[in-house]
Amino acid sequence: MPIAITRNISPRMEWCELTHQEREPINIALAEKQHEEYEDALRKLGCELVRAPDLPDYPDSVFVEDCAVVFDELALITRPGAESRRAEAVSLEDVLEPYRKLHYIETPGTLDGGDVLQLGKRVLVGLSGRTNRAGFEQLHALLTPLGYMVEGVVVRECLHLKSAVTQVGEKTVLLNPDWVDPLYFEGMEIIEVHPDEPEAANALLIGDTVIYPADFPFTALRLAEAGIELLLVDNSEVLKAEGGVTCCSVVFDE
């Protein structure tokens, strides 16, 4: 059974870190309702939810994906690029310890889980404003002996690699070509986001189904026409915090 680690919305979410977006008012009550529906979607797809400790004083704390990356062989506690978020990563140690041996990104490295895209034994790492070369090199040194191929990927005009591309099928990715070069995904089927929805590339594949924001109807139609099974969720408030559907959980096989 897949495990999905989640955390409650912080009441201070409106003070989240923002890099590429203008700040908008966030409706905390609506964000909490949408997050509950997101967790229900995870359960519907067979995930067992494990709740990380609440961190009400940390506005971005619902975005657990940035703080840990789980592989079959180990779990990585990251060192987020935003200094204000580093205590969030520490809080996941006790949650993950029962499932995997823990490893850590150490100074001067920084790495956000939103920059790590696993495609089987191929691991793409976004070199972004949140993940630096030292963080990438530490992950490379950790995974290469285990048979992974770890590659750095240049991203532009977006927060994380998974803002620009995510997996939506065994050999299919959803991609914004303005934010990441499609050549990194040569040999895979590529579905491009609708040009009117540049932020629509973030999708969460669980089994054969994709949890996807109802906020991007034109791209959702492209996915559906390609035969992708979708489970739509409202995601408006998380989007205002520069987040997405992958950001709010860490999903792995027990």
CATH-assigned fold name: L-arginine/glycine Amidinotransferase, Chain A
Coarse shape: globular
> Under the CATH scheme, which architecture would be assigned?
5-stranded Propeller
Give the biggest beta sheet: 3 strands, mixed
What structural category arises from helix and sheet content?
alpha/beta
Adjacency order of strands in the biggest sheet: 2-1-15
The number of strands is 15
Rounded radius of gyration (Å): 17 Å
**Overall domain count:** 1
N- to C-terminal distance:
6 Å
In percent, how helical is the residue content? Answer: 10-25%
Contiguous low-pLDDT stretches (5 residues minimum) are none
Average pLDDT reading? 97
The number of helical runs is: 7
CATH top level? Alpha Beta
- Beta-strand proportion: 25-35%
CATH superfamily descriptor: L-arginine/glycine Amidinotransferase, Chain A
Please sum up the structure shown.
The protein has helices at residues 28-44, 86-90, 93-96, 133-143, 161-164, 217-225, 236-240, and strands at 2-6, 48-51, 68-70, 75-77, 102-104, 116-119, 122-127, 149-154, 165-169, 172-175, 189-192, 204-206, 209-213, 229-233, 250-253.
Describe the structure.
- This protein has about 250 residues and is α/β, with parallel strands linked by helices.
- It has a single domain (about 1-254), classed as L-arginine/glycine Amidinotransferase, Chain A (5-stranded Propeller), CATH 3.75.10.10.
- Helix content is about 20%, strand content about 25%.
- The protein is built from seven helices and 15 strands.
- The chain has helices at about 30-45, 85-90, 95, 135-145, 160-165, 215-225, 235-240; strands at about 1-5, 50, 70, 75, 100-105, 115-120, 120-125, 150-155, 165-170, 170-175, 190, 205, 210-215, 230-235, 250-254.
- The strands form five sheets. It has a three-stranded mixed beta sheet, with helices on one face. Strands 3-4-5 form a three-stranded mixed beta sheet, with no helix packed on it. It has a three-stranded mixed beta sheet with strand order 6-7-8, with helices on one face.
- The protein starts with a strand and ends with a strand.
